């Protein structure tokens, strides 16, 4: 066996694979924003992400994506910032209602109960808060926002490292989506989060274009 030739072929294959994955990730993160630039030339609407809630287009809903909670039952820094950003949108009359979407405790922890309680503590009335406890992943959150809650247009709220993937998924499920960056502070392990999301971004492309994933919690276990 010609080991040098074999090693060369493996190297070429690995390089091609890496380039392809990078292209898919680039498209998910950057391509959706490039689409918005074209739309903006013909419309007053945009899906460009912004950290300034005052300049975002108004929409019927804010979609707040779940994140981890602390052992004492309080929201993590990232989760609190997502909820607080959505409350700013609500108080500024940029959105009319807020959808809290995340884990109901059947997968890891009850994120949505804490999210709802946090928003109410910040002054949002209960009747303007919707809760989806089966948004176990971003894929399910976006899919169910469209197919279960009938949302056609929304501002999606999450940190910037997550925003491109979230906007891509919601857009592909048919939601006209605007992005609100919830980066209100510097987060610990932010480099890890960016790196992890690169892998998740490729999976998002795969889930939409190649094979629909199975939900992490089976139907029989959800209720």
CATH topology heading of the domain at 59-214 = Rossmann fold
Cα radius of gyration in angstroms: 19 Å
- In sequence order, what are the helices and strands, one letter per element? HEHEHEHEHEHH
Which regions contain 5 or more consecutive residues with pLDDT less than 50? 36-48
> What order do the strands of the largest sheet run in, or round the barrel if closed?
3-2-1-4-5
Structural class: alpha/beta
Helix content: 40-55%
Structure in words:
The structure is a single chain. The protein has a domain at 59-214: Rossmann fold. Residues 36-48 have low confidence and may be disordered. With 223 residues, it is α/β, with parallel strands linked by helices. A 5-stranded parallel sheet has the order 3-2-1-4-5, sandwiched between helices. 50% of the residues lie in helices and 13% in strands. The radius of gyration is 19 Å and the shape is globular. It has helices at residues 3-40, 77-91, 111-121, 138-147, 160-172, 190-209, 219-222; strands at 59-65, 95-101, 129-132, 153-158, 176-181. Helix 1 (3-40) packs across helix 5 (160-172), helix 4 crosses helix 5 (160-172) and helix 5 (160-172) runs parallel beside helix 6.
């Amino acid at each position: 066996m010609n080991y040098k030739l074999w090693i060369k072929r493996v190297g070429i294959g690995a390089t091609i694979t890496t380039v392809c994955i990078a292209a898919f990730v680039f498209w998910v993160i950057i391509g959706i924003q490039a689409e918005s630039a074209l739309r903006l030339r013909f419309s007053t609407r945009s899906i460009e992400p912004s950290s300034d809630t005052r300049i975002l287009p108004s929409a019927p809903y804010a979609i707040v994506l779940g994140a981890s909670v602390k052992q004492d039952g309080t929201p993590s820094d990232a989760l609190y910032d997502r909820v607080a950003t959505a409350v700013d949108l609500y108080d500024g009359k940029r959105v009319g209602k807020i959808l809290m979407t995340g884990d109901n405790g059947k997968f890891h922890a009850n994120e949505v109960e804490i999210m709802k309680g946090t928003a109410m503590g910040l002054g949002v009335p209960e009747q303007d808060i919707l809760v989806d406890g089966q948004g176990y992943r971003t894929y399910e959150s976006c899919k169910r926002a469209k197919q279960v809650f009938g949302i056609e247009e929304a501002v999606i709220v999450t940190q910037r490292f997550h925003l491109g993937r979230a906007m891509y998924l919601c857009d592909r499920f048919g939601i006209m989506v605007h992005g609100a960056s919830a980066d209100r502070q510097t987060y610990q392990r932010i480099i890890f989060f960016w790196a992890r999301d690169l892998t998740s971004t490729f999976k998002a492309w795969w889930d939409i274009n190649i094979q629909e994933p199975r939900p992490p919690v089976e139907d029989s276990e959800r209720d």
